[in-house]
Amino acid sequence: MQIKTVSIIGLGALGILFGNHLLKKMPAHDLRIIADRDRIAGYEQAGIFCNGERCNFHYISPEETVSPADLVIFAVKYNGLNDAIVSVQNQVGDHTILISLLNGITSEAIIGQTYGMENVLYSVAQGMDAVKVGNQMTYEHMGMICLGERQPGVISENAQAAADFFAKMKVPYELDCSMYKRLWGKLLLNVGVNQAVACCGNNYGDVQQEGPARDIMIAAMREVITLSARENIYLDENDLNYWLSVVSSLSPQGKPSMRQDIEAKRPSELELFAGTVIQLGEQHNIPTPINKMLYEKISAIESQFLANMIGFSTFSQVVFCVNIATTIISKGVWAGHLCL
Domains along the chain? Predict the structure, then answer.
């Protein structure tokens, strides 16, 4: 199979990043951005910009009847996934390959419940430092898309077709024969960097240097490593160091999605991160105190801005970081070095 037509749903940071790149490599009408009519009107009036350049996307509403796309890319937030699945119905045919760039470890299975798992590839978007404010998205590092099948050691026809397409489009990619472990690795990263920066910092720079924010990030990640063994994934120190190296490669001024959500006063993907860890901890009777504290703090932050209250201050962030760091030491949760 050769991929010629692509449909993307979701114009957050990832949708814009990869959409803008593909727009420069393929015919504009072969790249469809799926959005409802109200959103399309807003996009066309205000524009969508990537590093200051307007993206002249070809928009398609869910109601329009078109030939099925060869590839559909889900780039929405988790809380928009169910609507997105319905919205791409006219884009999906018997041979359409489906890729999710969502965080977490469940979106592929959710998409497969509607369209079948046979054409769903597992994928992870990693290494990008995109920041979106309003209709403006900026980035320094594009990152890459890792893709493959859930079953270890298998390179399917669909996976190879997607890899060939990304190679032709010069999209950085990696064909991974252990994609479900990679998904868990991305969860390891997000549980750490997203939540630590959301609570204890402003950008990646705050967790790239020694200090409470970085210590909390690593402590939260270690809880994921412990749980992974019970799920037969077996993340270890090598995985931790790999994902810490990914964090180190990002622009210090960049911000993870959860921090961007909090600054924009919109609900974050907390349930995908700490929520997943807490649930698995209860299932396997494994304590997850760091993620529980992060969950409580981020929930309180979201409750404040949802009630039209002023968000937390930098001072309260620092106090919270020091309190968690003290708890880590006193309870012996993590024996790593703390630089307070």
Answer: 6-177 (3.40.50.720), 181-331 (1.10.1040.10)
